[in-house]
Amino acid sequence: MKRITVSIPDELAEALEKVVKLDPLRRSRSAIISEALTRYIASKYPNLLKHKEVKGPTVISALKIAKLRAPSLTLRRTRLKLPEWVKVED
């Protein structure tokens, strides 16, 4: 693994900090940036990344995000924020 230094606009840095705080999987800043770069390169230049297929959210990550609670609808005050699902071809 290599380490790089990147300068980004203040607005993007502030948004990144908010994402780190809101991320239900509690990933590090580095992991979020790495995933974003991986997805960008995989979509624009798929032949450059041959070792890993990029997939959407899994059922396990959705369950972690859901923070399971009592089944009673009266106890649930807010709607659950679930990730957008991505269709994965076999």
What does this structure look like?
There is one protein chain. The protein has three helices and no strands. The protein is mostly helical. The mean pLDDT is 78.
Topology record:
Blueprint: H1 10-22, H2 29-44, H3 59-66
Short description:
This protein has three helices and no strands.
Strand content: under 5%
Number of strands: 0
Unreliable parts? none
Class from helix and strand fractions: mainly alpha
* Principal-axis shape: extended
Mean pLDDT: 78
Major β-sheet profile: none
Order of helices and strands: HHH
Essential attributes:
90 residues
